[in-house]
Write a structure and sequence with these properties.
By secondary structure, this protein is mostly beta strands. It has four helices and 30 strands. It binds CU-O-CU linkage and copper (II) ion (2 copies).
C-alpha cells in the first residue's frame, strides 16, 4: 500500500533511498494512519495588506512521482501536481505574477471567475516561453465557491493539463453558512502512463490517439488530489463538506456512495439556497459540486465511487465503461460521536436572473468537434452581444456523444434541460449537454466587455477547434 507520501517534494527526495531500503523492520512498522488525506499546499500570499493578495505562480518542467514507484517527466505549477490551492476571499484584489518556464506558450485560465477579459488567460493572450504575465482581478461579492485554474493555450491544452498543470481555487465569503464543519477539497482527474512512467499522449494518427480524439483522452489511473484511493476519516455521525472538481480531460464522474445519500449543497458558482438530498451526482468536465457526507457507525467503511455513465458514441465506447471505479474510502473512526450538527435549511439567497428583458435568444449547435458547423478561428468573432444585456442560449447537441458546454467570464443559470425545468436556481459556468439533447440557459453580460471563449470542455475537442469566440461590447 502506498501510505505516507505526504508531499510531492518529499517523494522526489526520498525515492532514490526507497529502492535500497524498501522493507521497514516488520515488528516496528507503524499502523497506516487512518486518514491518508493529501491536499495540495496552499499558495502563499506575499502581501500583508488586508484584502490584497499577491501570488507567485510558475509553470515549469519537473520530475515527480505521479504513479507510485515511477518517475514522470511532468509539467507543474510551483513543482506540485495538482498545483497549489489558491485561497481567496470575496472582495480580494488579486495579482498573480505568473512565469512560464515551459518550452512552449501557455496561459493560466481562471475557470469560472468573472474578471476582465485580459486577465482571463484565454488563448488570445499567450505567455511565451520564458515570459511572465500579471493576472489582475477582483473577486466579486457573492462569488464564494469552488473554482480551478488550468492552461488554455491554442490547441495544446490537453497535453499541458495531462502533464500536470491544474489546480484548485477556493473563494470564501465573509460569513460561511457551513462554518465549523470539516472542509475538504477533492480534485478529480485521471491519467494514463507508459511502462516507464511517461504520460501517454499518443499522436492522433495512432489507434489509441484516434480514440482519444473521438472520446477525449481518458486514463486508467484515477486521481484524487494527485493520489490514488485516499482515505477520509470521519467520526461517527460527523458531517464533512467535500468540494469536488472534475479536472479530467474527458472522464465524466457519476458520483455515489452506495448505501448512502449525498447532501448536495452547491455547484460551480457556490452554494444553493437549500441543501438537497440525492443518491448520485453527475459531474461533467470542469464542473464542481459541493456535498455533505456523514460518518457512519463506529468502525464502518464506505466508498465514494464513480458509477458507469454512457457518454460515448457507440463506436468508441471503451470496453470497461460499465465498471464502477472506487475513488475514496470513507472510514468512520471509533472515536466518540461528533457533536450534533444541524445542516442549515437556508444556505444563502440565489436570485434568478430576470428574463423580463431578453436582448437575444440564440441557439448554439454542438456537433462532433464543431460548433455551429465551424472550427475555432482565433481571428473570427462568432457571437456578438451587447454589454449589460441578458440573453437566453439554447445549446443543442445534435450528435450521439455528450459534450459539456463551458462559457468564460460570465456565470449563467440553467433554465431547462430537454424541456424539463431546472428544479432549483444555481450559478454555473459549465453544463453537460447529453447526446441528442438541449440545454437552455440564461446569462447576463455585465461589467467586462471583450472577447471570451465558449467551448466543449472535453479538452481534446477544445484543442481540435470545438470552440467559439464571443465578443461583448
Ligand atoms: Cu476550463 Cu475555457 O476552460
Ligand atoms: Cu473557463
Ligand atoms: Cu466535445
Amino acid at each position: 500500500m502506498k501510505y505516507g507520501s505526504l508531499l510531492t517534494l518529499a517523494v522526489t527526495v526520498t525515492v532514490g533511498a526507497l529502492a535500497v531500503s524498501t522493507a521497514p523492520p516488520a515488528a516496528k512498522a507503524p499502523a497506516p494512519p487512518a486518514d491518508t488525506w493529501f491536499s495540495p499546499p496552499v499558495l502563499q500570499n506575499t502581501s500583508t495588506k488586508a484584502g490584497v493578495v499577491e501570488l507567485d505562480l510558475t509553470a515549469s518542467p519537473t520530475r515527480l512521482e505521479m504513479v507510485p514507484g515511477k518517475m514522470t517527466e511532468a509539467w507543474a505549477y510551483n513543482g506540485t501536481v495538482p498545483g497549489p490551492t489558491i485561497e481567496l476571499r470575496e472582495g480580494d484584489f488579486v495579482t498573480v505574477h505568473f512565469h512560464n518556464k515551459l518550452a512552449q506558450p501557455t496561459t493560466v485560465h481562471w475557470h469560472g471567475l468573472h474578471l476582465p477579459a485580459g486577465s482571463d488567460g484565454s488563448p488570445l493572450h499567450p505567455v511565451l516561453p520564458g515570459a511572465s504575465r500579471n493576472y489582475v482581478f477582483r473577486i466579486p461579492l457573492g462569488s464564494a465557491g469552488t473554482y480551478w485554474y488550468h492552461p488554455h493555450p491554442d490547441m495544446t491544452t490537453t497535453e499541458q493539463v495531462a502533464k500536470g498543470l491544474y489546480g484548485a481555487l477556493v473563494i470564501r465569503p465573509a460569513k460561511d453558512p457551513l462554518e465549523g464543519i470539516h472542509d475538504r477539497l477533492l480534485i478529480l482527474s485521471d491519467n494514463r502512463f507508459q511502462a516507464d512512467g511517461t504520460v501517454d499522449l499518443p499522436h492522433h494518427t495512432t489507434v489509441q490517439g484516434n480514440t482519444d480524439a473521438q472520446n477525449g483522452r481518458e486514463g486508467d489511473v484515477l486521481f484524487v488530489n494527485g493520489r490514488t484511493m485516499p482515505t477520509i476519516s470521519l467520526r461517527p455521525g460527523e458531517w464533512q463538506r467535500l468540494r469536488i472538481i472534475n479536472s479530467a480531460a474527458a472522464r465524466v464522474f457519476r458520483l455515489a456512495i452506495p448505501g448512502q445519500k449525498l447532501v448536495h449543497v452547491g455547484s460551480d458558482g457556490g452554494l444553493f439556497e437549500k441543501p438537497r438530498e440525492v443518491d448520485e451526482l453527475l459531474l461533467a468536465n470542469s464542473e464542481r459540486v459541493e456535498v455533505l457526507v456523514r460518518g457512519g457507525s463506529p468502525g464502518s467503511r464506505a466508498l465514494l465511487q464513480t458509477l458507469p455513465y454512457d457518454r460515448y458514441d457507440f463506436q468508441t465506447r471503451p470496453k470497461d465503461w460499465e465498471q464502477p471505479r472506487d475513488l475514496v474510502e470513507l472510514r468512520t473512526s471509533t472515536d466518540p460521536p461528533a457533536p450534533e450538527y444541524t445542516i442549515p435549511s437556508a444556505l444563502r439567497i440565489v436570485r434568478p436572473i430576470s428574463t423580463k428583458l431578453v436582448a437575444a435568444r440564440r441557439t448554439i449547435v454542438f456537433a462532433q468537434g464543431m460548433i455551429d458547423n465551424k472550427l475555432m478561428d482565433m481571428t473570427r468573432v462568432d457571437t456578438r452581444v451587447r454589454l449589460d444585456t441578458t440573453e437566453i442560449w439554447t445549446i443543442e447537441n445534435v450528435v450521439g456523444m455528450d459534450h459539456p458546454f463551458h462559457l468564460h467570464g460570465f456565470q449563467f443559470q440553467v433554465l431547462d434541460r430537454n424541456g424539463v425545468p431546472e428544479p432549483f436556481v444555481s450559478w454555473k459556468d459549465s453544463v453537460n449537454v447529453p447526446k441528442h439533447s438541449k440545454v437552455r440557459l440564461v446569462v447576463r453580460f455585465e461589467n467586462f466587455p471583450g472577447k471570451w471563449m465558449y467551448h466543449c470542455h472535453i479538452l481534446d475537442h477544445e484543442d481540435m477547434g470545438m470552440m467559439g469566440i464571443l465578443e461583448v461590447r
